[in-house]
Specification:
By secondary structure, this protein is of the alpha+beta class. It has a domain of 280 residues: Glycoside hydrolase, family 65, N-terminal domain (Beta-galactosidase, Chain A, domain 5). It is built from 18 helices and 33 strands. Strand 10 and strand 11 form a beta hairpin. Bound molecules: beta-D-glucopyranose. One of its GO terms (biological process) is carbohydrate metabolic process.
């Protein structure tokens, strides 16, 4: 873990009170702003020093070769890498000819603050130039949720101790030089000069750059304009060259006078539109941003976020750090998806180049569960994007000799780009994850239009995949062999329980969907017999169980493998994938991340409480959590099986992944799945929320430190609020305008309850199941004990 910047606990802000250049790259990810279409890392306005400069556009990528030392049939030959696009956030300042640079002169104070309600990043600096001139700089940056193509910066400078000549140089810069990547294989490949100039334009107040990528054939335009406000005369002029445009604003001010520059930035990109069309699109976006004005952009941003928090806020009493972290996590998940419109959500969102900017199953199984219940309009866009890539997934299935659609393990555009087939190609469960999110979304929203236009086809094509991937044995049991489940320390396994149970949901969900929409089914060529074959296969799927140990096997034969020597493993050997050959990991009982335990969350209806308790204990002892996707799931099952304090520890781990940089790679972008995981740990863990088969149920129970957990959800047009105390819980309902009787049936600890608008229901919380023994983690891999880490002073009531 690298040094952690201190972010004081605050329910709505992430504040950095001092600039620490050692953790600059990490803070750039934490402070990244995005709307799902544009992403700007939290680089300093003046561009230098930087950890990792970054400006991204969703799905704007370059192709690169994917060399294999020993090639094989079906190996993808081209990789896709997110491009660091034209930097529009650059604003340099010169004070009496000296560049404002925090490494020189005297930095009297430096504060940055991410405001989770305003949707802005603010920066306040008091700096004395090497020649002794003191200035105050204040900047506020936003990436607009309401103007999809627009980002804006309000940049203010004032001299503090005497007359000063101020020159602000605001730029657009393409092909910025990037630091060379570290040797960690997970770090993105760095592309040098990926953009080729097509046109540059300067006008008085701003300008425009148009570029295209060399191989992927994508064209992008970035434009800027400025609104200048100064008490004294200013000189403004703009110059442009192939890779940069610079607007210079110069004036002389005295103390008490302030120069204010509003910089409006717009981006557009396309694989098809012409240069004039893109140029005009960016011009139009700038014009409408100018019309809204800075105050209008701020107000729109606030209203958008007010609505989001009203629908989905989570309030935690008793742990201010978790309170801050869960809102921070939700904010980043929202940022990653808000305006993605038919585009994916990558594992790092648009906050950094990690994993080459690729999209994994993290999207459907971690980020979408949050968005489906808090911002369903964003969730459905991801599913529509998957639908738009169906042809590529069908082609991939054909290449693999399969039917239906095999979605890529990692991609930007929709092609498989995983170079390591046992982890990539064989991780077929991603297709079931997409089906699961489709079913979940439709059940939670009742969006029949989406179901008919895209949902049924997604379910049908993925069901076809499973039916062709699996086979019947001579006893009539249906097996899915040779796959990799979520735990990447096992591969090419037979009958992975998670995969089989998710495939089962997929097969049954597809059969149900075609029964509901027979006309759509007919268009897709689904006959009655085909849908029946899905049901039969689903019902004959094998779920391996070890009768001697009384636990499920993660995959067939897993519980007979040799145990990992945890006692003989040094702490520096983790993550094991960087210090041990996969060969060794695959044949032992060692888990990178929750697998069977994840199955017990999303297919919890298929396990009895006793099975859950025993399985949880068994896999706890073998799970390293080398992946950040694990802790939240362990929190959910720890809570369900009565280990509330352990669940609380895991909640802390998931929630603080990026604020504490626990995986030492936040510099490359935030861990979106884990950030989503803080919501999952609270809502599904301590709130006990499940929605198996469209039935909403809660089994809330709090750990000792939390005095109250209050969360809101959207469910079929209702806004539902669940307020959990240590003794009882109250369910509140509103806005169910489309529902007859404005009432909702849900389950509370297994008992049916009808909640009506205007009359909340309060119910007692039964005591937790008695756990026979405490789960034990591998030596040295227990989570940080959060329940003892929180001091009584931290325990306070949050607004
Ligand atoms: C995890 C995968 C995950 C990927 C991207 C890997 O370390 O094992 O489950 O999809 O990271 O976050």
């Amino acid at each position: 873990m690298i040094r952690e910047p201190g972010y004081p606990s605050d329910p709505w802000h992430i504040t950095e009170t001092e600039l620490d250049l050692e953790v600059l790259a990490q803070s750039e990810s934490v402070f990244a702003l995005s709307n799902g279409h544009i992403g700007l890392r939290g680089n300093l306005d003046e561009g230098e020093p930087h950890g990792l400069p970054g400006s991204y556009l969703n799905s704007f990528y370059e192709l690169r070769p994917l060399p294999h030392a020993e090639a094989g049939y079906g190996y993808p030959e081209q990789g896709q890498t997110i491009v660091n696009v034209t930097n529009g956030k650059l604003i340099r300042l010169l004070v009496d000819d000296e560049p404002f640079d925090v490494r020189y002169g005297e930095l009297r104070s430096h504060q940055r603050e991410l405001d989770l309600r305003a949707g802005t990043l603010e920066r306040s600096v008091d700096w004395v130039s090497p020649a002794g001139r003191a200035v105050r700089v204040h900047s506020t940056r936003l990436v607009s949720f309401t103007h999809r193509a627009v980002a804006a910066i309000c940049y203010e400078v004032e001299p503090l101790d005497g007359k000063a000549r101020l020159v602000v140089q605001s730029g657009l810069v393409a092909n910025e030089e990037l630091p060379v990547a570290k040797s960690d294989p997970r770090v993105a490949a760095v592309l040098r000069e990926p953009l080729q100039s097509e046109q540059h334009i300067a006008n008085g107040e701003g300008g425009l750059l148009i570029h295209h990528t060399k191989a992927s054939g994508l064209r992008m335009a970035a434009g800027m304009t400025h609104v200048v406000d100064s008490p004294k005369d200013v000189v403004v002029n703009t110059e442009s060259f192939s890779d940069w445009v610079r607007t210079t604003i110069a004036c002389v001010l005295r103390p008490g006078q302030r120069l204010r520059v509003i910089k409006l930035i717009a981006y557009g990109w396309s694989s098809q539109r012409s240069l004039p069309a893109l140029r005009d699109q960016v011009g139009a976006a700038l014009a409408s941003a100018k019309l809204a004005g800075w105050d209008g952009l701020l107000q729109d941003q606030r209203e958008y976020l007010d609505d989001f928090w009203d629908a989905g806020d989570v309030r935690v009493e008793g742990d201010p750090e978790v309170q801050q972290a869960v809102r921070f996590g939700m904010f980043h998940v929202l940022q990653a998806g808000a305006r993605n419109e038919m585009r994916p959500i990558a594992a790092k969102g648009l906050t950094g180049p990690g994993y080459d900017g690729h999209v994994f199953w993290d999207t459907e199984m971690f980020a979408l569960p949050v968005l489906i219940y808090t911002k369903p309009q964003a969730a459905v866009e991801v599913l529509r994007w998957r639908h738009a890539t169906l042809d590529l997934a069908r082609e991939r299935a054909r290449t693999l000799g399969l039917k239906g659609a095999a979605f890529p393990w990692r991609t930007i555009r929709g092609h498989e780009t995983s170079g390591y087939w046992p982890a990539g190609t064989a991780a077929f469960h991603i297709s079931a994850g997409i089906a699961d999110a489709t079913i979940r979304y439709v059940q939670a929203t009742g969006d029949e239009e989406f179901e008919r236009e895209a949902g049924v086809e997604l379910l049908v094509e993925t069901a076809r995949l499973w039916r062709s991937l699996g086979h019947y044995d001579r006893h009539g049991a249906f097996h899915i062999d040779g796959v990799t489940g979520p735990d990447e320390y096992s591969a090419i396994a037979n009958d992975n329980v998670y995969t089989n149970l998710m495939a089962q949901r997929n097969l049954l969900g597809a059969a149900d969907a075609v029964a509901r929409h027979s006309d759509v089914a007919a268009e897709l060529g689904v006959e009655h017999s085909e849908a029946e074959s899905w049901r039969e296969a689903a019902n004959a799927l094998v779920i391996p169980y070890d009768h001697e140990l009384g636990v499920h096997q993660q995959s067939e034969g897993f519980t007979r493998f040799q145990e990992w020597d945890f006692a003989g493993t040094n702490p520096e050997e983790y993550p094991l994938l960087l210090t041990h050959p996969y060969f060794d990991l695959y044949r032992r009982q060692v888990l990178k991340q929750a697998d069977l335990v994840l199955a017990m969350h999303w297919r919890g209806d298929m396990f009895s409480p006793d099975e859950k308790a025993r399985n949880f204990q068994y896999y706890e002892a073998r799970t390293t959590r080398d992946s950040s996707l694990s802790a939240c799931t362990q929190a959910v099952l720890a809570a369900e099986t009565g280990h509330l304090e352990l669940a609380y520890d895991y909640l802390g781990e998931a929630a603080l992944t990026d604020l504490h940089d626990t995986h030492s790679n936040t510099r490359d972008g935030v861990h979106l799945a884990s950030l989503a995981g803080s919501w999952i740990a609270l809502v599904a863990g301590f709130g006990g929320m499940r929605d198996h088969d469209g039935i909403l149920s809660f089994s809330p129970r709090l750990p000792a430190r939390l005095t109250r957990l209050d969360f809101s959800l959207l469910w079929r047009g209702f806004r539902l609020r669940v307020s959990v105390g240590s003794e009882d819980v109250t369910y509140y309902l509103r806005d169910g305008d489309h529902e007859p009787g404005k009432r909702l049936e849900l389950f509370h600890h297994g008992t049916s309850v009808t909640v009506e608008e205007g009359s909340p229901a309060t119910l007692p919380i039964p005591s937790a199941p008695r756990a026979e023994s405490e789960p034990v983690q591998p030596v040295g891999r227990a989570p940080v004990r959060r329940h003892s880490a929180v001091t009584p002073a931290d325990v306070s009531v949050q607004p």
